[in-house]
Every structure is written in structure tokens, then in C-alpha cells.
Amino acid sequence: MKVITAVLIGAGLRGGWVYAAYAQSHPEDLKIVAVAEPDEERRNLIAEVHGIPEERCYQDYRELLEEEKMADCALVCTQDTMHFEPVTKALEKGYHVLCEKPMSPDASEIVTMGNMAEKYGRILMICHVLRYSSFFSRIKNLIEEDRLGRLISIQHIEEVGYWHHAHSFVRGNWRRSDETSPMILQKCCHDMDILLWLAGSSCTKVSSFGDLTYFKEENAPEGAPAYCLDGCPHRDQCAFYAPKFYFEHPKAEADGFIHAVSADTDRKAVLEALKTGPYGRCVFHCDNNVVDHQVVNLEFENHVTVNMTMSAFTENCARRIHIMGTKGELRGNMELGEIELSDFSTGEKEIIRLYTPPTGHSGSDTNMMKDFVRYLREDSVQVRSGASVSVESHLIALAAERSRVTGETVDLREFRKEAEER
């Protein structure tokens, strides 16, 4: 079978250590032939790992996309606000595109990207990896098999995890909505996509409430310095003390968060980075402004109603779901790989246990990459997480943020019309 070739635009944690890493473990499927990354250390590391010649290493993605088309596809893994230009230019150049989520924090850009993929007849696949999980795939099958009857209501909880929230949304790249995306878009467009998929209908109305309550200056313990390594007196009691957090927390290690702190993961190099770098800051003395808890209510055309809760204040990074139908109800925990199905007519309960790998969104990252390669080999137009379906879930998330800020219920059809006319 043909090996799919790719150019990598953005060699950060997701691009360099998840999607490009698939080429390392599956060289029969994917080969990275060029990289564009402004950080020289990360760029050189990717080049070394994938055997990319110097002339195919670019500091700026514009330089790469000015060249003649050199691969089958482009993996666009830049920051949230930097997806639009490389995605649209790559589509124009003839590349199929895999784009990290979210597509953009701008509703009009999201709509335009979806339209361009259709115009040029290219695959624009969004990294909504949960659609590729065995957990949500099984739930979708159970719904389609009519095991629950007609869907009535869904409750969904996104447990962000105190440690994940501190890393990504307090100290990290997604801490400020004015620089990246609102948290409900960045973290939960995954969930909006899944809820849209499971509901099997278009969303009509959105309302939302939430705030930044805990991770702010007024809650700092007395005497806590700006940086953990500046002699913090609370180091032994604080769950967020940076050296302990990055060297000892098992989840931080499993998710490779240390690579965000320093490309060189030697202990000395990491400690040096924590002295003055963003990941060494006290979580109460950062410049973050995104929420640490939020609820979203959705109404769909088929009268299904949904309530989703996102919270930073959980031990685990997990997703739990409760689906209520006319014939039965379903409760599930994605990270445990457990689904409990109750039948109203018989009173019987069925427990389904699935294998869930401990990393990569419970194995979804790998499954998504396998499907992306398959879609390109087959030149398929039926893509499970293509732009045509991802546009709506992104708009739902942005509508939720508007509702949270304004206190008003948002009509999604009007919201989309507004985006299309901008």
C-alpha cells in the first residue's frame, strides 16, 4: 500500500509528539517529509527523528507553502489563532489537511475553511479524536440499534483534572481567551462534536454560565512568590508546586507535559526552564483569564436536550455521560471504558467493558490517524470528522461563550447566519 507523505506545520506537543509520532510507529502508513516550526530546537529534533533534510526544514510555514506541493497532505498543528492561513493556503496548494482543533476562535473563519474544503474538493479533517474512540463509537452503535429508544436527554461531564487545567489553562498556551480561544471551544469542541453526533440532529439554541473562580490572585496563599522556585513556603502542601508537578505527577508524565516545559527533558534543563518560564509560575500569580468551570445547555431540532458541565476541580481527566431514552438509559465512563445499559421493559442491566489505552485520548489519537491515512488512500469524501460536520460543533462552542458573557440564550441559526455574512 502507498505510504502517505505529509508536511508538518507546527511541531509542538500535539503536532510533534502525537500526530507526527504516528509516522514513527507506523512507517508503512505515514512519512513526514518537511517541517515548519519557528522554535529551532523543536524543528531540529523533528528533522532528526524523521530524517528530514535541511532544505525541507522551514522556520515559517509560509516558506514551505510557497514551494511546489511536496506531499499528499499537511498536518496543521499551530496555535488556535494560527490555523486559518496555513489551512486555506494548503488547500489552495492542493494538499489534503489534518487540522488540530479548534479550527479557529473566529466564527467567520470556521465557516470559510469549511467552504474552501468543499470548493477545492479536498479532505479537511479536524482532530475531533473522540469520534474515533471505542467508547463513543460503541455508544453511537447502541443508539442506532435502538437500544435506548428515542433519545430524550443527555448529561455530559468533562472532568478537566486539576493538574491538566493548571498546566494548559493557567500556566500554559491556552490560559488567555484573547490570545487563543475561550476554554469551552479549546477544550470542549471535542465534547460539542460528540454531543452533536450522538443527538443526531442540528442544534437550535444554546445557553451557558461559568466563571474563573479559583485560579486568581486573591486566592494566593500568604507569602506565595510569583515563581515556585523562588522559595515558596507552601511547596510541601501545594498540589501545583512546579518541580513536584512535572517530575512526580504520574498523569503529567503520561501526557508528556514536560515536553512543553523544555525540549530538553534532562532534569537540570527542566529546572532551569521552571525558574523563569511560564510553567514555573505560581498558579495564583499567572495572567490567565479563561474559566475554571462552566455549564452549557443545548436544544436540538429533534427536541433532544443536553446539559454539559466542564470543571477543573476533579482528580482525573475524564468524561462521563448519562443518556436517557424512551426504552432505557445509558451511563458511561470513557476513561474506565465502562458502559451500563438499563432496559426499562425487562429491568435488565448490561455492563459493557472496553479496552481503553491509558494515553492518547484512550487510544483515539492513533485510531484517528489510521482513519486519516485510509481516507487519503481511498480518496474518500466521507470523513467522520470532516469540516462539514465540525463547523457546527465549533459554532455551538462559540455560541456558548457568547451566552456566558452576555447572559442571553443564543439562536444558533442566527449565530451561523451572522458568521456567514461577515
From TrEMBL:
Classification via Pfam families: GFO_IDH_MocA, GFO_IDH_MocA_C
Superkingdom of source: Bacteria
Residues covered by the Gfo/Idh/MocA-like oxidoreductase C-terminal domain: 140-410
Domain Gfo/Idh/MocA-like oxidoreductase N-terminal residues, every copy: 6-126
Family: Belongs to the Gfo/Idh/MocA family.
Name of the protein: Dehydrogenase
Originating organism: Blautia caecimuris
